[in-house]
Specification:
Elements (H helix, E strand, L loop, with lengths): L17 H14 L14 H23 L1
Helix pairs in contact: 1-2
């Protein structure tokens, strides 16, 4: 098991990136048709939350692949 100090937390390695990550999350939610609010979103279903996370990963992979070209 990893001895990562951030294990199980929502901390970013670069705290200043929070605003950019929040914007990225909002864009991904909009792309998959999920109404994401600023602040608390505990009323989302697991499927909705998963679709947002999946879209974010898809976009990160695409960005990485485009950077290799």
């Amino acid at each position: 098991m990893s001895s990562n100090n951030n294990s199980g937390s929502n901390k970013l390695v670069i705290p200043e990136a929070r605003q950019a990550m929040d914007q990225f999350k909002m864009e991904a939610a909009n792309e998959v048709g999920v109404n994401l609010k600023q602040g608390y979103n505990g009323d989302l279903t697991a499927q909705q939350a998963g679709s947002i996370g999946g879209q974010m990963v898809k976009k990160m992979i695409e960005a990485y692949e485009n950077g290799l070209k």
